[in-house]
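Researcher: Batch entry, complex prediction.
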Amino acid sequence: MAMSKPASDPRPQAPQAPQVSGPFRQGDRVYRFLTAERIAHWAHALSFLVLLFTGLALVIRGVAAFLGGEVMGAFGLTHRIVAVVFTIVAVPTLIVGARKSAGDWVRGTFRFDKDDVRFLMGFPKDFFGLKVKLPDQGRFNAGEKINSILQILGWPTMVITGWMLVWKDALPRQLGVWTLTIHSFVAMLLGAAVLGHIYLASIHPHARPGFTGMTSGWVPGWWAKGHYKKWYDKLPEKQ
Amino acid sequence: MTRYAYFIDLSICAGCESCTVACQNKNGLDPNLAYTRIHRYEAGTYPDMLGTFVVNQCLHCDDPPCAQVCPTGATQKTAEGPVVVEYDQCIGCKYCMVACPYDARVFDEEKNAARKCTECADRLAVGRKPACVETCLTGARIIGDLDDPKSIIHEAIKRPNTIQMAGTGFYFRLPPQITSQEALADGTKGTGVVYAWQSVLQPLGQLFMGGAAAALLASAAAFAVKSVKGGGADHGHE
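Model: Structure tokens for the complex:
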């Protein structure tokens, strides 16, 4: 209940992004995610969700038997096809279209300062809607950094173990069992993370005004200032 | 109670492979697939060499890794000992083939199923012997009930040079050419990770996912209550 949204909603008339190499401020809105970052995000996100859905049946007991061999066979084929998208789209897109911005993200996400630690301690209260003063954050808050770390480490883990499992018959037994175990366990970790991510991004009242950052690229200035003050204050201003 | 044990006297196995064929016949297997396979085993270095035969098949583990990793529960350990498969529940994922220490599962492309020896559990249930035991020309294969004091199995497993395969109800009598168990697969290797997956990591992963789902439902409920009470939307924090 802290503050109300300004009368002018920036979303419908989001302007074309000028030629820039990174995010910027313009009037009462902020251009938060570049086109390549958004494409990479959605290619990664949608392929991941299909992979999670088609793979989950194998790690939750009873589901696969309920669905039966034919459905599971179709799931298996879908899993392998979508895995190609998951493997080859996101990283080249970032390298080609958002090298500086994505590079800053990767470097920054492994650095945690005192404000990040204090953010994580206060976050559970904010998550459940209790009053709490959270410390100022950079472009990504500490929770988003943890999600980023899970993605940055989880992606190659899933890609490598996943393609190994396509040819699991050829693997030595010990390696095969390890590969299967790592692939399944990391999938469940990432599955837990994505539940929280989707909820925060699209439903949680404090976080969801930022959703448009991943669609049009633009977020309300008041929201960016409230959530990422350290980043907002340093943003270049464009006319 | 019935507890089946299986004994193979490798010292008299002639390598004739009639067990392989009888089994294929009984189970309607493609000639390229076999539940029980006979391999030639050679010991020593030329010209000082001795040859014999070893058997490669399902040993019906006490705690079978193939059943532990099976996502559908199609593979099951029965109380009597045989490890069996409900083929209508097999989805052909081959996890069991990865986990099996003895390379005993065979993949039937036509049925899209990872098939295996069942110790002829159907025959045992009606008092008959498995096809391989019935057909063995030298009488090297013996099956019996450890809980039946009159069973022939008690005499068999006391024969000299007989070893029990760790973690299974299988006994091999080794011929003089085989001086160490190395000739026979070691099923105890690598079971730790299967156990860790089944008993720790899988439940833990489900707990993470369930915990995340529960937390966000609680959060959504908290905000719903708040907006009803407060009468206004809660847009963000400063």
